[in-house]
């Protein structure tokens, strides 16, 4: 059994987890031995090791949360408990909404251009004669 409120809290938990995890990675990177040695050379003292923030504990009442997506075959709510961070299973995670970053959009546009070139190669009868 899972309610929209539980799913909202589930997503919020994993968003918070990702935020804290990234912060820990950033702090651990600062504790890199080479950086510490550089700090020692510059300042004459060793830098303090960073205190890492604790990762958020998974809420006990959200254990066993089910996907709840609608089955296309039976119409019943999906009972899968293997969920992604979006609160849905591998079959009900939703479609991709496309690239978000400028880099991703550029790569997507490049792939689209390559696809158009490939189709034009297939329509080119001279090339088909050479291939076959
Ligand atoms: Zn599902």
- Rounded Rg: 25 Å
The set of bound ligands, ions and cofactors reads: zinc ion
Terminal CA distance reads 58 Å
Helix fraction, binned, reads 40-55%
Strand content: under 5%
How many structural domains?
Answer: 2
Please report the total strand number as a whole number.
0
Q: Could you characterize what this model shows?
A:
51% of the residues lie in helices and 0% in strands. It is an all-alpha fold. It folds into 2 domains: 4-94, no CATH class; 100-132. The structure holds zinc ion.
Which properties best describe this structure?
mainly alpha; about 130 residues; binds zinc ion
Element layout with pairings:
Elements: H1 4-30, H2 33-43, H3 102-123, H4 125-131
The chain binds zinc ion (ZN).
Zinc ion binds next to loops.
